[in-house]
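Notes from the 1:1 (GR / supervisor)

We went over the backlog. Supervisor wanted to see one worked example end to end before approving the batch request, so GR pasted a single chain during the call. The sequence is below; no edits were made to it. Supervisor asked that the structure be written out right there so they could see what the output format looks like.
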Amino acid sequence: MAPILETAVSLLALAGTVAEATPLLKPGRHASPGVANVLSSSKRSLHNLLARYYGSTYGFTKPSPLPEKRDTSLPDGWSVFGCVAESTDARLLQGFAFSSSSLTPLLCVNECTKLGYTMAGTEYGDECYCANSYSGNGGGLADDSTCSMGCGGDSSETCGTTWYLNLYTYNSSSLASCSSDSTTTSSVASVSASSTASESSASATESATSSLDVATLIADASSTESASSSQITGTETASSASATATSSEAGATITASATSSVATSSFTSTASIYEDSDNASEWYALGCAIDSSDRVLSEYSVDMSDMTINSCLSACEDLGYKYAGVEFGEECYCSSTLASAVTYDEDQCNVVCNGDEAETCGGTWAIEIFELISSAVSSSCSNSTAPATSSVASLTSGVSATVTASASSSAATSTSETLSESAPETVSQSASANETESATASLTASSTESSTESSTESVSASTTATASGSATTADSTTVPSSSADHQVWAHHMVGNTYSYTSSNWASDIESATAAGIDGFALNIGSDSWQSSRVSDAYTAAGASGFKLFLSLDMTSLSCSSSSDAANLVSLVSEFASESAQATYDDKVVVSTFSGSDCAIDWQTSFVDALTADGIDIFFIPSLFSDVSTFSSNTWMDGELNWNSGWPMGSTDLTTNSDETYISALGDKVYAAAVSPFFYTHFSASSWNKNWLYRSDDWLYCTRWEQLISMRETVKLAEILTWNDFGESSYIGSISGDLPSGSDAFVDGMTHTGLLSLTNYYATAFKTGAYPSITEDELIMWARPHSHDATASSDSIGRPTGYSYTEDYLYAVVMATEAATVTLTSGSTTESFSVEAGLTKLKISLAAGSISGTITRSGSTVASYDAGSDFSYTTSPTTYNYNYFVGSSSS
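Structure output shown during the call:
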C-alpha cells in the first residue's frame, strides 16, 4: 500500500510541474486555457494506478440500491457526451446517486430526469450519479474505450468503469417539439433613457472598448441602439471607449452602445467541458479557428475591455445563441450556427483576455469557439435560427423600434393572442405586406418582461409603480369558455401523516374545500402503516363531497414482479368502492408518481387485472419518459405533467411543456401541475437532495393564469403539493410528521396564506369566471436571506439553482375598490395605487421584518405585520430558500 501511495504522491507532484506548461488549447479541453491538457492525462494515470482500491481509498461508499427496472431508449433531449474521469476529492456528479444491480443508461437517465438534473453518469457497472454541474477535480474526457464495464442490467451496454463515468447530458434545444417558426422576445433588464433603431449602410472598424454584459446592452442608464446593414470589414485595434455591440438578424444588424462596465468573474477548471461560473451553464470547447471578414460566428458581436471567457459565454447564452467565440483578447462573437467550413489551428489563439491574464481569448484573426451543451438559463425551447433578443418585438429587415422608460422600477406582464388590457404600460406591434414593421414600448418605470408575440398581437397591462418597486395586474379577467367539467386536486403525501387521526384528515379536508380544491391525490408508498392512514382519509371524507384517489409512488413501491403487480391491484381494490373515491368518466381514478421504469406490464398485470375484478380505472400516471410513447400506451388514459409546475432554469415558466404534452397525448386527458415553490436541502448522508426551482415573479399566480387561459384544452389541474414539506411546495398547514431534517427549513415558514389565492384561481379555472372580491386582502411572501449569501454554519452547502432566484418581497393585493397599498421590508417602504381586482406587487428586500397595509379614504382596511415571525438577513447561519407567506386574513 505504502509504495503505491508514495508513487501517487510523486505523480501528483509531477502533475503540479506539468501545470506550469503553456496551454495547449486542444479541442475538447476543460477551459480555462491556463491549465494544460497533459495535466488531465496525469490525473487519469493516477486514477488507473489507484483503480484496485476504487472509492474506498477516499472514504467513498456505494450508494443505496434502487428497485430493479426495465430498459427502453433514451428520452428525447438526452444524448451521449462521452467517457469522463471521476473526481478524487469529491464525486464528480453530486446531485443524487443510487446503485442498482439492474442498472442501464436509461434507468440512470430517467431517475436524473425525474429530479430535474441535466447530467447523468453511470459508473462501475451499477452506480448512477446525477447533477447539473461538475464537482471536484475530475471531468477529463477519455477515450470511449476506457468506459468498458458492462451494465448490471444489460451487459451489452457500458456503465463506466473504475474511476470513469459514461456521461449523458440533456439539451432542450434538441427536442423535436421546439418550433422553428416562433420568435421569443425577452427583455432581461430594466431600460432607461431612449433608443431608436433604423436601417443604414455602413462599414465598421473592430475596436476594444469598455466592459459590457449582455444585460447592460438593454438595461444601462444611457443606452442607444441603432440597426444597420453594416458588414465588418475593418482591422482590429485596441482602445478604451464606450462599449459597442452588433447583432445581425434576418438581414438587419442591430448595434448597441453603452457607457458603463460590468465586472466579470474569473474561472479555472481542468475537464473537457467549460462550465460558465457565472450561471453554471456548460460549454464544449471546439478549438481555435481561423477567422475572416465573413466571420465564423456572424450573428452577433460585442467588444469588452474587461472580457473573460465567462463574460462572453454568458452574453451569448442570454441572447439565446448556441455558439460563442472569443477573439483578440476583447471581442466576443455569437451565432446560432457555425460556418460550413472551419479551419482549426491551436497555435494561433495566443492573446490573453483583457479581463483575465490567466486565460487566452483567441488571437489576431483567430477565434476560440465554444458550443453550449447544458444551459442554466432555461429548459424551454427556443428558435435556434432566431434566438431571443433584447428588443420589444422581433426585429427584421426594415424594422424600426422605439423604447422609452424612466425610474428604476420593473413591471411584469405575460401575453397571449386573446389578451387585451389597458393602462400605462403598452406593447404593440403592427405590420402590413411589404411595409415597415414598428414596435413601441412606453413604461412608467423601467420594465423587466418576457413575452412571446406575433405580428397580430396587441397587448397592454395596467401598471403603477414608484421608486424601486413594481406592480402589475392579473393577465386577464376574461376566462375562455368551456362546457367540460374541470377539476382541481392537491397532492397529499401520506408518508408525512404517520401521527394523523381522523380529525387531522377532517381539518385538511375542510381547509382544502374552502380553497376550492375538489380532492386529494393520496401519494402512497411502501410503508405498511400508510394504507391505514389512507383508510382514515376515506372515512373522514365520507359524504362531504370531497374526493380522494391513490397516487402510487413508484419510487417507493416495488414493480418488478407479478407479486408486486398483485400488491398494486390490491391497494386500488381496497378503496375503489369507497363513497369518497374520485371518478372520471365513471371510472375509478388512479395515478402514480413515476413508473416508466417498472418491469411489470401495466396493461395486463394492472389495468386488465383490475378490470377482471370488476374495477374499471381511469389511469392517469405521472411518467418521466419519452412523450412520443404516450399515444401508443393503451393502458394510460392520460398523463400528469409533474414538472410543468416549475421553470427548470433561470427564467420564468412558460407553457411550452404543456403544449408538448397535449400534442403528444392526442385524445388522451392532460393534467397540468401548479405549484408555489420548490426547495429541498438534505445532506448526502440523508436524502441527498439540495436544489431549488425558480419560484420568483409570483409563480403561483402566473401558473394559475396560464392554466386558466388554456382551460379549453386543460381540464385537470393538480396542486403540488398540500404537504410535501421536504420540498417546500406545501400550501396546507405545517402538521403531521416532517421528513427528518426538513424542520430546519420548514418550521415557522407558513404557506397557508396562499389558500385564498388558490380559491380565487381554482374558481376561475373550474367555472369559467373569476369570483367577485368581497374582502380586501394582502398576501405577501419572501425568503429569509439574500440569494447569494454565504451561510456561516451549513455543512450541506448552497443549493443548485440558488443563482436563479432574486431578492424581492412579493405581494398580491385583492382589492374591493381602488386603494393605496404600502409595503415595508426592513427600512424600505414603498406605496402603490391599485385598482379594484387583483394586483401583483414587489419591492426589494432589506434586512428586517416585512409588513403591508391597504388604505382607502384615509382608513386602513387590511394589514399584515410579520413582526418577529420573519426576518430577512444577508448573513444567515444556515441556508434556507423556502418562502415565508403572510396574509392579512390569517
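Supervisor's comment: Residues 382 and 487 are 32 Å apart (CA to CA).
Batch request approved.
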